[in-house]
Amino acid sequence: MLGAIAGDIIGSVYEFRPIKHKDFEPLFAAEAEFTDDTVLTVAVADCLMNDRDPAEALKNWGRRYPYCSWGRRFREWLFSDDMEPYGSFGNGAAMRVSPAGFLADSLEDAWAMSDRVTRVTHNHPEGLKGARATVTVIVLARQGADAQAIREEVAGRFGYDMVRSVDEVRPGYRFDETCQRTVPEALTCALEAEDFEDAVRNAVSLGGDADTLAAIAGAVAEARFGVPDAIAGEVFRRLPEDMRSIADQYRCASGGSR
What we know:
By secondary structure, this protein is an all-alpha fold. The protein has one domain: Orthogonal Bundle (ADP-ribosylglycohydrolase fold). The protein starts with a helix and ends with a helix.
């Protein structure tokens, strides 16, 4: 979860100011801040750890932070009395789901958790698939699978193109809010990376929906490498107390970054 939040914060300043390189400085821009990606990742963690109704948890947390850059359809759902899903296949399904990958004891457990927290809004098959693919990579990385084996598993199980390199993806990549054009690219950024920071820089450098790409890549990178102490400290410094409380509970429940 902390990896996803770090990616979100780092990528936040580039969401609408895309760049096509990895050498941005500093890693955490002065104006970088958490977005809706972080709010909903915390909501999912709260739901899974404290056995809350997923829709209720998402609405409770989302309404605490009404001025985040919510997507139009999610905002309509968030501030309505409607508890039914709306058929979304947006990349929000994958950007918030990482706690399921870290709290689960097996792939089957992770898929069940993923479906539980995803289908309350993103009940389109592509939305459910994007979330499942993300937690699959997290679990496999936690189990010690190497990057190539994970690429092959994701390609075979979910049908995503996992052959391209980041350098091959970057030139033609554009802003896209679908799971179909976010999840495989974000996973590639994390699986090609040499360390946590490299994964996030890869994701930002695609020049797309930077905070969400980096949130997904950061979650996977946390499973592969852990989150460096300096980055974790910077994340906690930028979070409000209610989120820090859930993050602390989560670190105990998940056994830390790995």
